[in-house]
Amino acid sequence: MEYAKPAEIERESMAIIDRELRARGTAVPPEREAVVRRVIHTTADFEYAQTLRFTENAVERGRDALRGGVIVTDTNMALAGVSRAAASRLGCEAVCYMADEEVAAEAKRRGVTRAVISMERALREHPGAILAVGNAPTALLRIADAIEDGARPALVIGVPVGFVNVVESKERALAVCEDCGVPAIVAMGRKGGSTVAAAICNALLYAAAGLLDPAARG
Amino acid sequence: MEYAKPAEIERESMAIIDRELRARGTAVPPEREAVVRRVIHTTADFEYAQTLRFTENAVERGRDALRGGVIVTDTNMALAGVSRAAASRLGCEAVCYMADEEVAAEAKRRGVTRAVISMERALREHPGAILAVGNAPTALLRIADAIEDGARPALVIGVPVGFVNVVESKERALAVCEDCGVPAIVAMGRKGGSTVAAAICNALLYAAAGLLDPAARG
Predict the structure, then answer these.
(1) How confident is the model over A64-76, as pLDDT tens digits?
(2) B187 - beta bridge partners?
(3) Cα dist. B198→A17, B75, B205 in Å?
(4) Interface test with A, best of B163, B169, B191, B196 (most A CBs within 10 A)
(5) Where are the alpha helices (DSSP H) in A44-113?
(6) Residue B54 backbone phi and psi in degrees, to 5
(7) pLDDT digits over B65-76, tens only?
């Protein structure tokens, strides 16, 4: 039994994804390829080639914001999935406030989710951050409200997963981001998750850090 | 804009999942319901109702092993997703060796994945653990080899995701577990992931800790 190396596995995986995307006749604009490919690599779900939506230049603007920037995730799982190696090359910090005791206390007091309070804190402490929501639609809705009130995060990654308020939260976030000129990458529909949020962060981080995608390494 | 509470959201989500499973005519045996439901809750993907395979009494035996037991995950993401609250109620420890420097060094020396070395360490240090593989097919293959050689983990959760060796690793792991009487929960096909591995652990943890599923609370 052979236990192949991860770099080889990843290169071969990306080649399979490219082949299957072509076989499905799915055309992904070149600047979005790395993101779409990495999300499919993470989920084995080609639906994302259809459901991922990008505001104009979202990839470029998100990538540019990573250098010396801050990523705030809505779950510790997503945070655990963000590549520390790539982030540190860029002087980019990745944080999550979900386990913070003050966040929990305020959420309890106000009767809202910890994710909402986390994002309020992110908007306050890191006004130009990349906000990555892989779990809580309430966090995404809070961000949309804040943007309407004038907040301008560098990028909104809106990929919560689930059955209640999820579809609506994504539609609203994308519309608000488009209206207000805030870059956004959103997975429409019910699907998403912490792994998807981390995959999008990593695709941008690898590109920004000049770490070639394994598939491109050839 | 209302930011509903997580317990309410989860209860409503579980009710939607149950309704849609019934509408699809998908019959899930009662003892497996909590696992299947939680995986769908985590992924919004009803395919898992078809692809999740259980060896006989896997849920019961896995649940029983959690009390005072050890969960070893193959990613720090999955570890981050395992409920600490439920685990600590049961005196259950959850660990991941992927970030361990010795693991990295040995993997490099032997030219195999860190996941393989992680699982070798898990099998050595925690011979009766629950092994949860959400990412690396190489880890699952290593476990299958070890079981053939006599290892007897308490439960194998085999839900790696991807395009290379993934389908094969799951088929082999399930077959070996069935042959050797090792309890296993496996998601056949390409799909899976760290969130799925954590969801299965949590469904078992909640059941073992007597924390009712939110849907049942409602």
Answers:
(1) 999 999 999 999 9
(2) B52
(3) 25, 10, 10
(4) B163
(5) 48-51, 58-66, 76-81, 84-89, 101-110
(6) -125, 130
(7) 999 999 999 999
